[in-house]
Amino acid sequence: MTDQQPGDGWGAVPSVDSISGTREPAAEPAPTPVRRRRRRGRVAALVSGGVAVALLLVAGVVGYSVGTSTHAPDRPVRAFLNDLEAGRVEAALRTAGITTEDADVLLTDEAYAKASGRVTGYRIAAVESDGDAATVRAYLRQGGKDVSAVFSLERTGTEWGVFPVWDLQAPTLGSVDVSLLAPAGTKVSVAGRSVSTSDGGTATLRALPGTYAVTVEGGKWFTAEGADATVSGFSTSPSSQVSLAAELTDAGQQAAKAAVDAWVDGCIASTEAAPSGCSFYAYGEDPAYTYTNQKWTLGTRPVVEIGAWASSGWQVTTTTSGRATFTADISGPGGVGTASAGPMNVNASGSITGIDDEGARFVSAIGNGSSDAGT
Which residue of 87, 303, 351, 375 pairs with 359 in a disulfide if CB–CB is 3.0 to 4.6 A? Predict the structure, then answer.
């Protein structure tokens, strides 16, 4: 088909498609939905704020939990025992509020390091609190055994107005109690620390849990078998008693017997019929006669044995008596002559009260009404 038509008059008629108003109405496009612009910033802020609040709550719960844990009554006890376990004695004593004096020679890092059977571990068994007071029960690992210990604490305030502050009350320390049968003032060594005994022969030293070696510093004159003193924990059997008896060394025995001999010689040297403080004497003098050139002659010396220290000294016992004779020249109504008495026993029982570089000191226990000392 072309655009020219036959001569019937229709050729000039425009095509239907070209006539306005005869076209099928075209479908209108669907309206584009209008999107509301979301307020992303506000939503993000709300979300962030919620997360922050949640985090704050979590942090608060965690912080409170941590704060409660770090302010629990057992914390000071743990700090004290941790220092003790590590051998930090001075730090442990500060934590426990224990004050020391010059006499506390065992309460040092150096002394505790020389002790055996120290605290090597612990475990907290129970924590009880009642108002401003708390009790912590623990077991100390000491010398391969568990030793119970009880600690008391007092609440002294709060931190940040929330968490309680607990102060460990100074636990009662044990002690090493030494009783020595030896001269007063004898030096003894406890864990390498030297102390002197009292007039009663004793020494008491405060000590932390542990085992302490005790020896006697008698020099060349006397000695004693050493012993160990064990202080267990803080509340069970806190004191450990050690009893030692000093014995004379060979040099001490010789010095003691030399003092006994000197005492006997002093009695024999007397020109009296009844030497003062001696164990022998002559009697029966006739007042009508004059006695001159009076003297004692020792026939045999007494044999003695030096035993253990008693309340006054090392005991001297006569095992075999000596013998002595008394002679004198006499003159009187019957003329002149010689008088004699004996032989008689010479005993030298008594005690050695002390010994040093100047010699031993002997005191007789057998005398005619008095005692005498010889060196």
Answer: 375
> Taking a C-beta distance cutoff of 8 angstroms, is the pair 177, 206 a contact?
no
d(CA 175, CA 230): 9
pTM of the predicted model as reported, rounded to 2 decimal places: 0.70
Tokens of 8: 């019937």
Which ranges of the chain would DSSP assign to H, the alpha helix? 40-70, 74-85, 89-96, 109-113, 250-268
Query: Which tokens go with 374?
Result: 């010889």
Give the number of C-alpha atoms closer than 13 A to the C-alpha of residue 89, restricted to the C-beta side: 21
Angle at Cα 104 formed by Cα 101 and Cα 107, nearest 5°? 115
**Cα-based distances in Å from 195 to 188, 211, 213, 288, 369:** 6, 17, 13, 64, 39
- Note the pLDDT of residue 367: 56
Q: How confident is the model at residue 15 (pLDDT cuts 50, 70, 90)?
A: very low
Contact between 275 and 296 (Cβ < 8 Å)? yes
CB 353 within 8 A of CB 363: yes
Structure tokens at 126: 């129970």
C-beta separation of 302 from 320 below 8 A: yes
First to last CA, the chain: 169
Enumerate the domain spans of the chain. Answer: 74-168, 174-248, 250-374
d(CA 360, CA 252): 8
Rounded CA separation 35/207 (Å): 85
Fold of the domain spanning 74-168: Nuclear Transport Factor 2; Chain: A, (3.10.450)
pLDDT score of 12 more than 60:
no
Please tell me the distance from the alpha carbon of residue 241 to that of residue 228, in angstroms, as a whole number.
9
Q: Tens of pLDDT along 293-331?
A: 889 999 999 999 999 888 789 999 999 999 999 998 888
Q: Do residues 346 and 298 lie in contact, with contact meaning Cβ atoms separated by under 8 Å?
A: yes
Q: What is the pLDDT of residue 76?
A: 94
296 half-sphere exposure, CB direction, 13 A CA radius: 27
Which CATH superfamily includes the segment(s) 174-248?
A: Carboxypeptidase-like, regulatory domain (2.60.40.1120)
- Which DSSP state fits 270? -
